[in-house]
Specification:
The protein is α/β, with parallel strands linked by helices. It contains 14 helices and five strands. The protein folds into two domains: about 140 residues, no CATH class; about 190 residues, Nucleotidyltransferase, domain 5 (2-Layer Sandwich), CATH 3.30.420.10. It is elongated, with a radius of gyration of 27 Å.
């Protein structure tokens, strides 16, 4: 009986990327064999699919394990050596770092126009892999983020709010709107099988206002019919009620309902100091990380038969005061900030 064979997500994506660019059947079969083995297919099943014998499959497997993708495909196309000079490679890297190319064929076209050097799509994939590139999604960041203002906020936070007296607390506040439908994610599933989760067609959502205290791993969460100025005022009152006479600093973004005159007046009367983040800076609001943490714990790969149960689970999770959960939160959401670099197009 053959031993289990495992591929992580990055290796699988690279193999699929090579397969898309394949020009010859033998190389494609080698890649498909490795992918099928990683999915739990037996040698006998793969023999029927690819018409390859067990000895050949085992050879492909051992070749991949010992030499990786380069060893698996190197003998089946001309491209094991770079066709570009070191200076041309550097220029290509500068191009790839400044612009997204959707396919290896588009990069082949760029290389031909720029250097008059021809590559096959498959050869280009291996070149890209060797010089440190892989096929993955780009990341989205706010287009109007101001790095200097973000850095100024981080300096101010470290100077004023990193260390507080016993009669002070700092919270990060924002809203969130989880929808009552499927939130599918990764998980450990038996090889060669699917794990199916029932879906909902309901687009109803719960409107939440939350505040997170990073020093204590403390969360306050309330749901409202709508997130508006009245909801913000009600939430600030709840925050004051929970904290007695302590001096409160609440850091929030520039949403209209949080910047409204009524909300500012209510905060002043409640002796709550509102601090507004620089515009377009969700990366500085630690409550954003709590939303991600909460989603992973109670929404991803979970099915709730009713909206009421969905809502109740979210609120109950926010009220969990266990020491273990607080420790997890403080590890997942440390008092550290990522400043967004300006993106030029």
């Amino acid at each position: 009986m053959e031993k289990e064979f495992y591929l992580n997500d990055e290796d699988r994506i690279i193999l699929e990327e090579f397969h898309r660019a394949c020009l010859d059947k033998k190389t494609a079969d080698k890649i498909k064999a490795i992918l099928l083995l990683s999915q739990g297919f037996t040698y006998a099943e793969i023999e029927k699919i690819l018409l390859l014998d067990e000895r050949t499959l085992n050879r492909y497997k051992q070749l991949y394990k010992s030499e990786g993708i380069d060893g698996l495909v190197a003998n089946n196309y001309q491209g094991s050596r770079y066709k570009l000079s070191d200076d041309q490679i550097k220029e290509l890297q500068q191009e790839l770092d400044s612009k997204i190319y959707r396919t290896s064929e588009e990069i082949c076209e760029y290389v031909w126009k720029t250097f008059k050097v021809k590559h096959t799509a498959q050869g280009m994939v291996q070149t890209l892999h060797r010089i440190g590139y892989s096929y993955k999604k780009a990341s989205s960041v706010p287009g109007k983020a101001d790095k200097e203002k973000q850095e100024a906020f981080v300096r101010r936070y470290k100077r004023r709010y990193k260390k507080l007296s016993e009669d002070e607390k700092v919270y990060f506040m924002d809203g969130n709107h989880p929808t009552f439908n499927n939130h599918i994610g990764y998980g450990w599933i038996r090889k060669g099988e699917r794990f199916e989760i029932k879906s909902q067609d309901d687009r109803k959502r719960i409107n939440l206002l939350g505040a997170y205290n990073p020093k204590e791993g403390e969360v306050l969460l309330q749901d409202y019919e709508r997130i508006n100025g009245e909801a913000v005022i009600a939430f600030l009152r709840e925050l004051r009620k929970r904290n007695g006479e302590k001096k409160l600093h609440v850091i929030c973004d520039n949403a209209r309902c949080q910047h409204a005159k009524e909300a500012k007046a209510a905060a002043k009367s409640l002796k709550i100091h509102l601090i507004y983040l620089p515009g377009y800076s969700p990366n500085l609001n630690l409550i954003e990380r709590y939303w991600g943490f909460m989603k992973k714990r109670v929404l991803v790969n979970h099915h709730y038969e009713t909206y009421e149960r969905f809502r109740e689970t979210i609120l109950l999770f926010s009220r969990n005061k266990s020491k273990r959960l607080k420790e997890l939160l403080q590890r997942y959401i440390p008092e550290k900030f990522h400043v967004i670099e300006p993106v030029f197009t």
